[in-house]
Amino acid sequence: MSNIQDLNFSIIKAFRGKGYKVTPQRLAISRFALFSRDHLTAKMIYSQIKKTYPTVSLATVYATLHILKEVGLLQGRCMPTSEARFDPDMQPHVQLVCLQCDSIIDWRHPLVSKVIAEVAADAKFSASGQVLDIIGLCNRCKEKTNLEEK
Amino acid sequence: MSNIQDLNFSIIKAFRGKGYKVTPQRLAISRFALFSRDHLTAKMIYSQIKKTYPTVSLATVYATLHILKEVGLLQGRCMPTSEARFDPDMQPHVQLVCLQCDSIIDWRHPLVSKVIAEVAADAKFSASGQVLDIIGLCNRCKEKTNLEEK
DNA sequence: TTGTATGCAAATTATTTGCATGGGA
DNA sequence: TCCCATGCAAATAATTTGCATACAA
Prior knowledge:
Oligomer: homodimer
Radius of gyration of chain A: 18 Å
Shape of chain A: globular
Helix content of chain A: 40-55%
Strand order of the largest sheet of chain A: 4-3-5
Low-confidence stretches of chain A: none
Strand content of chain A: 15-25%
Mean pLDDT of chain A: 91
């Protein structure tokens, strides 16, 4: 998604296409969630949106995130600990979830799509999304732990 | 894990190996969680164990599940909706998560381990677990939906 | 105008924690 | 014996819901 104009347009189209009304709150939440390269939590989005819409409620943020998932603009993923994170990257990809610093690093591997397609076909499963998380310690935290042990 | 004797032995060995005491409650919870082929929730385990230990508490179930994860006998995974599920299958495998009936079907694919190993190596990530979920509609729910629409 | 979205607060649900007591090693 | 595990209840934290009002279509 290259610029804000295109982004607005896609959001409006997706919402209206499923019969959802477009409100300033919904647009702001969607824009922020989709434009970000990070894996945000509902609260992070909420605190950001509150700067421009001080009366916005967390319930509206959650509701909007649900719509974004339904119209296929966003993926939600639950974390081993702590709250759900939202990811605008809809392509199948690997996420490296660090247990120590809670960071998520996206990674691409050409075989991910292949594995998912084959398994879904074999199991006659109609896939609407996928999660490939590798859980452990990121490089930075690993090095930090090593240093502290010395 | 072929029989109850072996299972008991493995559990005791794993607990003591990390300095955890073995109590009847812990053994019962572990046996039930590990022997099951299903992906149970903490509550499911709790209701089962209460039949033999009516005073057992949910907190103990959670604590034991944490230990089982730590000693590497169990994987925990969070669900898109509802509570966490626990899986005694520690081999990398695909899970087909049905959004309608909440069932989880395990599936094996030879490339899963390869993808995970390669990505972890490339990203210098030290992996301790993985989740490969395909989210959507299982075959049964898909057919049911089709019938209802006619 | 008409129904849907909003904001607020309260409700719900999963999980964790504090603490006194009991029991494994 | 001594510390760790237990059960209970209360706390926490994330997310959802009910409802009156506001606003997009």
